[in-house]
Amino acid sequence: MALNKKITIPLTILVLAIVVASWLYKSGKLSKVSGWTKSDGAAKQEMSAKPLWTCPMHPFIIKDKPGACPICGMELIKKLNDAQATTTQTAAQKQQADMLGHVSLSPTQRVMANVATVEVKQEDLNREINAVGIVQYDQSRQAKVTAWIAGRIDKLHVNAVGAYVGRNRPVAEVYSPDLLASQQEYLLAVKSRDQLKNSPIPSISQNGDGLVQSAKQRLMLFGVKESQIAALERAGKPNIRLPIYTPLSGVVIEKLVQQGQYVNTGDVLFNIADLSRVWVEIEVYENEFPNIKIGQRVEIQSQSFPGKPFSGRIAFIYPFLDPKTRTVKARVEMANPGMKLKPDMFVRASIKIGLGKAIVVPVTAVMDTGKRQVAWVETSPGMFEPRAVQLGQRTDDKVQILSGLKSGDKVAVSGAYLIDSESQLKGGGGHETMPGMKMDDKKPAPVAPTAPAPAKKDSLKMDDMKM
């Protein structure tokens, strides 16, 4: 019992002391007695700590004075302690979001990645549209030689396709009983006019002229020219065979009759085409035909005459699209000196179009991700950020920028894919985290909020690393 009392009494006194000390600490009386507070210790510790500087892109870089980051060259910022970090957490998160997707490259990395930049400029943009075409007959310079009266082809002056015929040279001679009778009627009317013109009665003398004009009109309807009618009147006897002339000079492209063949009124004897001018029907793809206009100059090249271009102008654009080739046809009218261009010949066409002043960049400066087009802009030496751009017209090596870039910006023309890959490896997401992009476009996976893990006393802190 004596031993138990020796243990129990000190233990009871110790418990009472702890209870009293706890009550004094909570009520603040202990701080008045001792003159010590938690805030005073934190303040002394904060005042005694020296300010440190770190890199926002490489937080493990810690220095005791301001300067530049030895890795990316960015300016160091002041490192915040726990109290300051708590008050400026929102600003830090905003700065981190703004820097998301940016990539910094050292001079060595730029050389290894072969990164080159050019300045965005506004200049004249010219585009060249290449197309293929086929030479066709000029339909306004084609004609058919037809029989104006039924009869027999007594003689053919043209016996083969491809022969050249002139407008003032007959191509055939036809015998027709109806034509012979009409000539005789005309000669009788002329004879009657000569007999009745001396009549004292005006109605009789004028009637003779009317008969002549009626007979002459009948002959002209049969295709007889006025010069032939005048020759008939001078000869005083009808012609057995009537010459047939072509309405224009050209080449015979089709021969449909033989000598001795009987023809009816309206039958086609020959098809004639004037090849001094031709049409070239070119096919332009549907994404290019809005740029072609009537009156534009077109240069034609043929494999048959290398190095000798022909020139023409667009005269008509067909109002329909070929569903098989997805092209629109345009008609080019042009001269054909020496008839070098033959119908159905394949040719190449080139149309040069001036698009005026525009902001242009090399084609290699734009990355096409499938959903959008991206250009990497150098905002400061060694620092690149992605920009979404809207493209316009495209030439062989340049592309028009409608929005996203302005004159004076520097864009990467080589190594852009390596920059994008570097951004994704660093967790920036590359072009998926461009400034101004909507969250719907990014579609981040939902992440459940988690409490920060408690710091361990013996764990290695990267913030303590100094260089």
Q: Quick recap of the structure?
A:
Helices cover 28% and strands 33% of the residues.
Shape: rod-shaped
Helix content: 25-40%
Which value, in Å, is the CA radius of gyration?
50 Å
Strand order, sheet with most strands: 6-15-18-17-16-19
State the CATH architecture of the largest domain. Beta Barrel
User: How many discrete structural domains?
Assistant: 5
CATH level 1 name of the largest domain: Mainly Beta
Counted by DSSP, the helix tally is 11
Distance between the termini: 68 Å
Beta-strand content estimate: 25-35%
The beta-strand count equals 24
* Largest sheet properties: 6 strands, antiparallel, barrel
CATH H-level superfamily of the largest domain: RNA polymerase II/Efflux pump adaptor protein, barrel-sandwich hybrid domain
CATH T-level topology of the largest domain: OB fold (Dihydrolipoamide Acetyltransferase, E2P)
Q: Which regions are unreliable across 5 or more consecutive residues at pLDDT < 50? A: 30-48, 438-467
Question: Your description of this structure?
Answer:
It is a single chain. 28% of the residues lie in helices and 33% in strands. By secondary structure, it is an alpha+beta fold. It folds into five domains: 1-44; 50-99, no CATH class; 105-124 and 357-434, Beta Barrel (conserved putative lor/sdh protein from methanococcus maripaludis s2 fold); 129-138 and 275-354, Efflux pump adaptor protein, beta barrel domain (Elongation Factor Tu (Ef-tu), domain 3, Beta Barrel), CATH 2.40.30; 143-273, Beta Barrel (OB fold (Dihydrolipoamide Acetyltransferase, E2P)), CATH 2.40.50.100. The strands form five sheets. The chain has a six-stranded antiparallel barrel with strand order 6-15-18-17-16-19. The chain has a four-stranded antiparallel β-sheet with strand order 7-14-12-9, with no helix packed on it. Helix 7 runs antiparallel to helix 8 (202-221). The longest helix is centred in the N-terminal third of the chain and has 26 residues, at 2-27. It is rod-shaped, with a radius of gyration of 50 Å. Residues 30-48 and 438-467 have low confidence and may be disordered. GO terms for molecular function: transition metal ion binding; transmembrane transporter activity. Keywords: Ion transport, Membrane, Signal, Transmembrane, Transmembrane helix, Transport. Residues 209-238 form the CusB-like three alpha-helical bundle domain.
